[in-house]
Amino acid sequence: MTKKFDHSSAPAITGRSYERKVQHKHGLPIKGTTSNYPWEYMWHQERWSFAEARNGFFPNLSFFHHSPGVGGIQNNGAGRSQAIAALSQRGWTVIPWDHPDLGLYGNYLREYPLANGRMQYVSQFQSPRVMGNRTVWTVDTEGYNDFLDFLQDARIVKPMDPYIKEYLIRKQTQRIGVIEGDLFANPGHKMMEVRLQREQRRLALMRGEDVDTAMDRAKAVAEAALKVASAKKG
Question: Which residues contact residue 199 at a Cβ distance below 8 angstroms, ignoring those fewer than 6 apart?
Fold first, then answer.
């Protein structure tokens, strides 16, 4: 489900889409803020991660900052096309805020004026709240995850290559192997046992396998470590 950005959490200060540059007499308190330049989301076909809460793989988005002097961007904002071309050669795809297929997620960038006259640019999934002389930011994590789902459903982000999934599963398997080795070196270590169960559960979800079976596997490893230690004491 798509979600609209709610400005109500920022009393007397309204977020602006990047296209709507409006000068304000007052701005957010600078404590808790970071002035920056406008940016756009970008994604790379090799950068994915697994989210247990959503039980799925998601693209790891990064940021194409319009910082003068970086990547060919000039002080007047020119050079964007050349910078995007250079990023494309390195496997990056920029998702402009005016992408025609973004729908309700279009204009995802928000511009907030700061009390020092500068600007902070954030996504529509961040909203500020003023507490005394400080700005506190709230992040709509569920809304952002919905956005990642949408990018895949709308084919704005291409489907994950099966090789990437295999690579992530292999890394997770290696992580579990290290934990198992540590557990055999420290049999009965409860924190390691819990960690092993957690990572085995994650691996099962990544593979689409039964979680209970993974938990049993982790417990069996913990029991085997204790047996080996007991045999050594003999």
Answer: 172, 175, 176, 179
